[in-house]
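Q: What structure does this chain adopt?
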Amino acid sequence: MESLTTVHTLEGHHEALVHDALYFPRHRAVISVSDDKTLKCWLQRDEGSYWPSVSQELPGAATALACNVEGDKRHVFVGLETGLLLHYECSADFNSMTLKKSAQIHTARIVQILLDPERDLILTCSRDKDLRIHSMTSFQLLSAYQTEAWCTCLQYDHASANVFVGTLKGEVHVLKIESNRLVFIVTLKEHTGSILSLLWDSTSKILYSGRYKAAAGSIKLRTLEDTKVVVFCFFKGQTFCCTHPTPTHTHT
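A:
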């Protein structure tokens, strides 16, 4: 197995927890958010090191981040511990941020933000147990779905508009966006504890989910409702579940 080598270390969040950082190789830029209540943009200088070009003060601890940097305008969305969502417009040279709008879209910490610019959608999940979709341009609430426990992670398939949200209860809720409304498909219950992360592979159409587990795990192959569980295994303290959603019904 190849070892990992540290190429750059970006220091400037004052030892606070960094909740999210996004890298844009074409622009040689990094955007990050932290518990220190700042939104930072880092640019790679000629000598190779990264230095902050923007350090934007925020009204609370930042817990989630999403960006759309394609096209003439660069849109940055920041979710806060309080459930507030902020929309900034970043300059083309990544040297300034302008607040465009803000809205209280959740009642608790925003855990993750995902964007679908083609459909003008923002997808968010929160510790208030809600998965919500809003309009990117107006922040208007379009649809919401409530789970039984804190939402912990979120994934989205742009092609099918399928949404996957993990919870503290160990469940993955699978939904579909139809006419800007969330339609429930199935709940996956293959984990015995809180889900820490989800990863959707759009090429193979496999959903990976993982959680920490101290005890040994197992490998399973089974069918759960209309969703096929391909692999469920334990490796170095992590439990992973691979699922292949194959709904037996269609929505019109």
